[in-house]
Recover the amino acids of this structure.
């Protein structure tokens, strides 16, 4: 009788620990994925900012050229 109770307790502890470890590593994986996405978003934002500045600079230069031709 004590043998079967011990087996049930061991199985219960195993299942509880298994759930804990699965939960723990799942959270770590989610955290890692979110950090990677954040880094990728930062890189994307930096690239978009460069492209915007380049386009804006081009528009300003066009406007200056147009205003110079109108003044002449």
């Amino acid at each position: 009788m004590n043998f079967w109770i011990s087996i049930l307790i061991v199985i219960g502890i195993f299942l509880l620990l298994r759930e804990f470890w699965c939960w723990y590593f799942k959270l770590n994986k989610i955290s890692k994925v979110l950090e990677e996405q954040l880094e990728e978003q930062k890189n994307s934002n930096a690239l978009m900012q460069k492209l915007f500045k380049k386009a804006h600079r081009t528009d300003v230069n066009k406007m200056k050229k147009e205003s110079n031709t109108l003044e002449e």
